[in-house]
Structure formats: structure tokens, C-alpha cells
Amino acid sequence: MTRAPVVRCTDLAQAVALRDHCVDHLDELRRVFAETTRYGRLETVRTRLAGRHAYLRFVCTTGDAMGMNLVGKGVHHVLNEHLLPRFHGAELLALSGNLCTDKKPAAVNWVEGRGKSVVAEAVIPPDAVHEILKVRDVGRLVEAHTFKNLVGSALAGCLGGSNAHSANTVAALFLACGQDPAQVVTSSACLVTLEAEPDGGARISVSMPSVEVGTVGGGTHLTAQRACLGLIGVAGSCDADPGAHARRLARVAAAAVLCGELSLLAALCSNDLIQAHMALNRAK
Amino acid sequence: MTRAPVVRCTDLAQAVALRDHCVDHLDELRRVFAETTRYGRLETVRTRLAGRHAYLRFVCTTGDAMGMNLVGKGVHHVLNEHLLPRFHGAELLALSGNLCTDKKPAAVNWVEGRGKSVVAEAVIPPDAVHEILKVRDVGRLVEAHTFKNLVGSALAGCLGGSNAHSANTVAALFLACGQDPAQVVTSSACLVTLEAEPDGGARISVSMPSVEVGTVGGGTHLTAQRACLGLIGVAGSCDADPGAHARRLARVAAAAVLCGELSLLAALCSNDLIQAHMALNRAK
Amino acid sequence: MTRAPVVRCTDLAQAVALRDHCVDHLDELRRVFAETTRYGRLETVRTRLAGRHAYLRFVCTTGDAMGMNLVGKGVHHVLNEHLLPRFHGAELLALSGNLCTDKKPAAVNWVEGRGKSVVAEAVIPPDAVHEILKVRDVGRLVEAHTFKNLVGSALAGCLGGSNAHSANTVAALFLACGQDPAQVVTSSACLVTLEAEPDGGARISVSMPSVEVGTVGGGTHLTAQRACLGLIGVAGSCDADPGAHARRLARVAAAAVLCGELSLLAALCSNDLIQAHMALNRAK
Amino acid sequence: MTRAPVVRCTDLAQAVALRDHCVDHLDELRRVFAETTRYGRLETVRTRLAGRHAYLRFVCTTGDAMGMNLVGKGVHHVLNEHLLPRFHGAELLALSGNLCTDKKPAAVNWVEGRGKSVVAEAVIPPDAVHEILKVRDVGRLVEAHTFKNLVGSALAGCLGGSNAHSANTVAALFLACGQDPAQVVTSSACLVTLEAEPDGGARISVSMPSVEVGTVGGGTHLTAQRACLGLIGVAGSCDADPGAHARRLARVAAAAVLCGELSLLAALCSNDLIQAHMALNRAK
Which of chain B's residues have a Cβ under 8 Å away from the Cβ of C111? Predict the structure, then answer.
């Protein structure tokens, strides 16, 4: 999980010194950060400069928590106890300088990741393509994928939007499992690949670089939401291996997205999207 | 509301003819579209070509409904009854070719809009800046805004993300009012401006080009959600002026976002974001 | 060609009035614009608001000129003679408010176009695929295209970059023909599609929405550059059909890009890119 | 400098193994890379996966060369001699998989950099603001900057385009100094900040993460271009400190861009852009 405060330095030279300090004294920053948390750990700080304004992207592990509060608290502490006292005249403009990036579509998350980064793959045998997906020719499925998810999204100027409807799946899972629904914005970023296999089957993958999930904190303690996490086997923190529950939840999200992508693409090919919506979507 | 099927033509010449046909016969397309709906109306069709693949972005009004199903049904009908029979060899690859764009961050929505486009402005008197927002100097507020929402988001490579946390507000409102939570992805796109007024007050605005909301259909009939819509005075369709309820809901969303932006920026300036989160955010 | 000044209005209400005025009085704006030019013509004004700041995107035809100066002069005149006197308190902040958008990668150009929008297509017979492109299996060519130009560019977060190297071709043509080399940034935006034909041939297309070219003005009068334009048959203005030369030059650019795309993809498939560079690229 | 081939693995598991191998055996990869070059050095390999397709972004230093050929040659060698023989069934789809990213606007370059990353800052005293830039009030200059370079570019959906006209300066310098004019696309990415100083002066900065320049190779040996490099004191390779010439050229580019930004912003404020163009830009 990441948090990126913006610090206004006295001039560019000080901003460069601040950036270098974070590289050279990373161990000390980690120690100060650790004073505020049992589960979290500062991994690295990646700094970008806009003139004398330094954006310090703190990258942390956060156990089974999604970790925004944990990281925010630790970063606040590192700034006040370590960095700001050492850089006279530097001022914290905002604890989040939007390079984090939280809840806005952002290239930095797409490129560097945020939360969990997951890639999932499945090979669908020809039988399943024909009988279950009701697609006669896998080439037709690949074509729909290519011109919708790749070419269409490129025409639309999408960022992290090379998919059919990952946000639907992510939103449903987030609501059911007590995640932050505003983080659907970034967590649903997803690139799908789909290839025809030599035997007439299909190979599909989803790559999701910024799945922001946790199994403790936030809405995870609510009764219904905790029950859903329990069904998946990831309620609460994983004592044996802290972080394992959250990672598993991210993998489940990616697997669900993969299924949803396959399903919608097949429905578009057999052209029964509208009929299905009309039959199933309306309140009686 | 928009929907953009992708049609594979026999070659580029046919794709150009299809595009021109939609311009030249718009009235006829409107008539065919109208056969499927009482409230919806086809406004225009904006076509973009990727070689022989035509992406027809149908732009429609949808009364008080968010309108995805309504538009999907109408577009399906126009394709099957009017367009495809006239263009021999053209094939519908997918009813949605991702130029719509639904539930993915997309430049086309940011530039051309989708759903409602809303701009809201407020002038905050100096007293309120000092007493309520607890900000001593409005210049400090403008600086935090500039280097977080404008410069930070530019560094992060945001698309429609020049804001502090519009997605939080939009997600909350969408859940409360029975909207589609996956559409938070696109509906939360927002650009904030903040200026110091000569008297020491502040002028703030939010520009949100793609707020996808409705007051009929979807989750709006659920008891709690309908009650919330009722509180705002927009439950169900507006008989006197169809569409007025949905438009009002979009304006309420923008106003709420504006307030949330001001609040968070002020909290970042007075540096009590962490304290507030620690005090208020944790389950007892 | 487009130019988008940013005007700061007294408040949002005035900005809305300004926007509406440009729609309601378009003919009058056209008349005023026409006072400054013989060849240019104002087509429309698309306004976007960031609170009280109005960005007026003037869209004009410019005959055979690329047209930036022509449009800038006309917009300046419309502002000073017509708009600003009618909107008391409104102030021109900058004649270009960056929504034009000139010489920066911008979604607005990708979505709405700027300069000429060109789509070109070619069908390559199987013989040419094998003998000239030295590609044994067209499927291999499609695969390289898909995972480089579509998937790779999506991973990279490209905007208008679904191509192999359109900028190389555009830059070469722009230098040879006296175009503005800084406009390579926007003019090279290009989406390529490549499909296998049933007979083993290939179908390729390029879609370039913002090719900014002219055959009069700028560097087109220089001796060598004018000679190159002459070779293509488009030197100077086309008296019989003003604008025809510039349009043709844009089509030539797209055709050249198409060839370059095919050539590089084939070289990547046969894996002789490095050998070719080593053999041909170095100064003796 | 970077180059990112795309390798199709047999399945996702192999792709993960390939990614991990590049991390675990980096020293060996460096040794193999070094067999092809005297000046270049492999720094790291950052891999991103799209399912079973691995995009290996090789990041290298290249001495005083821009380095595309050097890196391409080395990457080709590492693939053929080391990686592909170890991963049975993996196939090189393209030596460049577009995650490099060369000559297309790409978020990956904006976030991670390519070529040289430069930040420059200048403080302009009040006298110079008034007498040379002809701007009465520095607040006016800041306002033009904010609503053009930051807000306008955000509205336009720019990527790396928070500047007034960096591409003009970069294109001019690249042509004069024998650089690759197609790389203006990526090298001109630039974020400007401008602040009012307490004394009425201005503080301006430019941040340019991907300036792709060299002082040997390419067009640098041409007579006129070499003379220009000589004027700057960076012709050829720097024997005492290989790479110092190229780094200096990148800094000169940033400094020139900074000046050009200041000049155009001032011209927009004093509103004499059009007059200047009319007086100076036309061929006599």
C-alpha cells in the first residue's frame, strides 16, 4: 500500500537532498515507521520532484489490512519525527499529494502497482467453449475480445480499461466483503488477454496491478461482510502467515473477474446480452 | 447516456458508408430507436473508425432512468432492424465496443461526457474559511489544492482525477440512492478549481462530465434506497418534467462532492486528517 | 484546426452564459472571424467549463494552410471585437488554454480530432506476405501486432500509441515537406489494426485523428521542402479546390505510416531488425 | 535507456519463472549484456506480465550515446544466448513490445523515466518580471500558468503535457544537435510549476522525466549538428567521464525549455502573442 505526501522544500536543491536522504537512510525511516505499527513495514520510498515540491511515495506492506490508515499514520510519524526536523524550512503541504494514488484513475498505479498485483490465467477446453459458453468458434470470441477490449478501449483512451466489465465483479465483491467501494475505481484496473488454443479451446488471462483489499479493519467486521469473508476462508487476520488472507482475497477477486470477462464476452458473441438483461435484470 | 456497438464491415469503404448513413439518416434511426422506448430518445450517433471496424457511439436521453438497458435495447433494435440489413456483410462483433465507455476510466467520457455533465461553484466567505474550515490563510488552501489536485495528479498520470476524493462522496451517494456502484469508476471523474477571493474568502468549483444516475430502475426501488431518494425529493420519475429528478440527483452529487473536497483540503491544511481518522474511523 | 482560449468569467453563471452565447450566435461569430481571413472559416465552438473558467475550442477550416496562425488571429479578433465587450468583467487569461491541444499528447485530439483525420486500409495478398515481407505465416504477424501494438501499448499506458513507430514516418515526412516538427507529437497519434485474411493475406489499417499539415505557410516555402511537396503534387495552395492539397498530404502521410508499420512488424517477425540496423544505420 | 521485448511463454507459470529468473540472475544477465558493448551497462530488468506474455523492460546506461541501438543489440544477445535457451517453448514475439516505450506518448516513461530525467528551477527577480517579461503583476503570470498548463491540460486529458510549448524547444534543439526528431514525442514530456515569490518575483521549474539524447551516434556526426554540439561543449563522447556530455545536453534542453515556457507565458499575459507571430513569423 502506498501514501505520497507532498513536501514543499525551500528550493530544488533541498528537494534533491530530501530525495537522496530517503534513499540513503531508508533503514532509519523504516525504524521510525515501525514505531507506529505492529503489522506494517515500510518497504521503500520513491520520490518524484515537481521543482522544489517533493512527492514521497511510501510503499509499505500492511499484513492483512488494506492499510491506508496504517500507512497514513506511519508516514505522518516519519515526517514529523524524522524528515521535517532535518530539513529546515520544508513544509508538509498535504499528507496525500495524489501520487499515492487513492481512488482516482492513475497511471502510477497501473505502472507501479498499489495494493496487490495479481495475474490469473485459465485454459478453457473446446467442450466448455461450445457447451457452456455457447460459442461455436473460439476465433469469434477472440475477435470480439480484440476489437472490444483492446481496440475499442484504445479508441476510447482508456487507462487500465482493457477489459469488458471488471468493475462489475470488483464492486460486487467489495460490497459483499466489506472493502472500500470507492477503491473500485483503482482496483478494477484490468487487462485481459484471450487466445485461441490449437485444439479449439481458449486461453484467457487477467492482469490486475492494483487490487486494494484487506480482511481486517474497514467494513470487514460487519456481520454480513465478515460472513462472506468466512465463506472464502479469509475472515480476519491470518495468524500463521500475516497477509496471506488479504493476498488470497485479491486472488479470488482476479479469478472472479476472469470468469465474468469470459461470461460477458460469450454473451456478446451469442448476442443474448439484451435478452438476458430483460429477463433477469428487472424488478418484478 | 451512450452505447457504442462495434460493427465489422466488409472493408473501409463500407465502414465509411455506414458512418455517413448514420449522419444522413439520423431521423430515421431516431424513429426506429423510438419503437423500443417511451422515455428514451436517440440524440445523435458519433462514429469512429478503426479501419473497417465502425464504433457507433449512440447518444440518447433517457428520462429519469440511468438508461443503460433502455439504450442497449434501442441500439440493438436499430442495428437489427435498420442498419445491418442495409449493409450486406457487416457483422455486429459486440453490442458494446468499449467506446461507450461503461465502468472503465476513459478519455472519451472525460471529453464528450456521459450521463449528466455538471459544474458547481461556491464562494466561501472569509469567516467560514477561518471559523468552520479552520484555515488561517486561504492562500494555504489554494497551495494545497494546486500541488495535490493539479500538480500531484499530473505527476501520477491521472485521467479525470484532479480532485482530492470525489470517489468517496460519489460511492456513498450511489450506495445510499440505489445507483450502480461499478459506475463510481466513471461518475467520480472530477476537476476541482480553487481560487482565493480578494476578501480572503475562497471560490471553489467542481466539473464532473460523466455522472451516471437515475431515479427509476436499477436499485432505486429498494426500500432504503428509495427512502433516500425521497429525502432528496427525487424518488421515481418526475411526471411533470421527465428527467428532472435524475438531473437534480446529479446536481446533488456534484454539490456533495464540492463540500467533501473543501472539507478534506481544509483537514489536510490544518493537518488533522490522521487524528480525525483515528478518532472517528475505528469500530468500537 | 483548433484554438482554445481560456476566459475567466466573473462567476459560473457568466461562464454558462458565454458558452450558450457561442452556440446561439455562431453565425455572428463566424462573420466576425471571417473578417480576418480569406481562406479560413469558423466551423463551431465547443466550450468546456472548469468552474468560471471557460475554454472555448474554436474549430476552423483553414484551406491549404496548417492554420495555427490563421486561427489564432481570427480567435483573437472574435474575442476582442465580439465576446469580451459583451461579457463585462470577463478576462482573457491566455489565447491558448491548452485545450487546443497543440504539441502535447492530449485525449481531446485523440477523441475529437485536430487537423486532418485520416483512416487508411490495405489488403496484402499472400504472395506479398511471403515474398516481400518474408513472413511465413500471417498469423505470426497478427500475433506480433496484437501483443506489441495493442497489449504492450495498453500496459505502457499509451495515449494514441497503438502503433509500432508512426512517429518515425511522420517526423521524416514533416521535415522533408516543411511541416512543424514539434507537431509530430500530436500528428503521429495512430491506431493500427491487422487481421489475417482467409486466403493467408493480411488486412492492415491505420487511423490517425490529428494529422496537422499544410502546403502553404510555415516551412513550405523553403526550396528543398517545396520541391518535396512538388514531388507529391501538392506544392502551394490548390486553387481549384482550396484545402485539397493539405488533405492529400495528410492521406500521403497515413499511407506512408501504413507501409512503415507493415515493414517494421515484418522485420520483428523475421527477427532481423538488429541486423538491418547494424548494416544500414551506421555512418561509414 | 530502455528496451522491452515481449516473450510469449508456454503458460503463466513459465512467465512468472522468467520474471523471477531476471531478478535472481541479474548479475549474469549483466555479464552477457556486457559482451556486446564497451559503454553500455545493464542496470535492471523490470518485468510486467499480460498473462503468459512477459514484457521485460531492460534499463541500461549507455555512456554518451542515446543508446537505442546499443541496448537493442545487447537485449537481443541476452535473449538468444541466455534467456530463450533456458525457457523451453518461450518465443520472442517482438524485440520491442512497446513497453520501452519509444516514440509514443506513454505513462510508463512519465512514471519511470526514459533517457535522462531532469528537473530545473529558476528564480526570476521582480525587476526581470517587470522589465524583461513585461508582466506587471506576477500573480497574473501564475494565474495564466495555472489555468493553461495545469487546469487546461487536465481538461484536455494530457499525458505529460502540463506545459505551454516544451515540444517547440525540444524539436529545435533536437534538429540542431543531431538528435532523433521522432523522439520529440517522448522527450518533450514536461511539467511546469510557477509560484509567486514574496518579493514579487517568480519561481519556475520544469520536470522532464524522459529526455532521450546522445552526443555520439545517430545524426551527431553531421557537420552542422556536430558544430552545434561543439558550441554547447558536448561534441562527441566525454573521455574523462563517459556519459557526462549526454547528461549535460539533457540539462541544456531542460534549461532551454524553462526559458521558452517563461517567455510564452509572459507573451500570453501581455497579450502580444499574435502581434509577435504576425511581425516575426512570416516569410518576407
Answer: 107-108, 111-112
Q: What is the mean pLDDT of residues D75-84?
A: 97
What's the pLDDT tens digit per position in C131-170? 999 999 999 999 999 999 999 999 999 999 999 999 999 9
pTM of the model: 0.96
The predicted structure's pLDDT at residue B270: 80
Say if CB A144 and CB A133 are below 8 A apart: no
Contacting subunits of D (3+ beta carbon pairs below 8 A): A, B, C
Nearest one of A63, A144, A67, A137 to A100, comparing CA atoms: A67
Question: Which of B107, B151, B153 shows the shortest C-beta gap to D193?
Answer: B151
| Residue C252 contacts residue C235 (beta carbons within 8 Å) | no
Residue B7: in which H helix or E strand, if any?
strand B6-8
pLDDT score of A279: 72
> If you average pLDDT over residues D187-216, what whole number do you get?
98
**The predicted structure's pLDDT at residue B278:** 67
Return the DSSP state at A97.
Answer: -
Q: DSSP letter for A115, please.
A: S
Q: Which grid coordinates belong to B178?
A: 440505489
CA neighbor of A269 nearest in space, from A129, A123, A120: A129
> What's chain D's average pLDDT?
95
Separation between Cα atoms, residue B196 and residue B137, nearest integer Å: 9
Q: Which residues pair with A7 in a beta bridge?
A: A54, A92
Written as nine digits, the cell of C260 is 512503415
Residue of D nearest to A204 (CA): D51
Q: Cis peptide leading into A101, omega within 30 of 0? A: yes
Q: Determine the average pLDDT of the residues in B223-244.
A: 97
Q: Does the pLDDT at position B284 exceed 50?
A: no
Pairing status of strand D202-211 against strand D116-124 = antiparallel
* Predicted local confidence at residue C277, as pLDDT: 67
φ and ψ at residue B180, rounded to 5 degrees: -80, 115
- Per-residue model confidence (pLDDT) at position C116: 98
> Where does the pLDDT of residue D32 fall: very low under 50, low under 70, confident under 90, or very high at 90 and above?
very high
User: What are the φ and ψ backbone dihedral angles of C135, each rounded to 5 degrees?
Assistant: -110, 125
In this structure, what C-alpha cell is assigned to residue D146? 495555472
Helix (H) or strand (E) holding B174: helix B166-176
Q: What cell does D224 get?
A: 552542422
Q: Please state, in angstroms and rounded to a whole number, the distance separating the CA atoms of residues A237 and A243.
A: 7
Chains with ≥3 CB–CB distances under 8 Å to B: A, C, D
β-bridge mates for residue C6, sequence order: C55, C94
Q: Which residues of B touch C (CB under 8 A)?
A: 11-12, 15-16, 48-53, 107-108, 110-112, 119-121, 123, 157, 159, 191, 193, 203-207
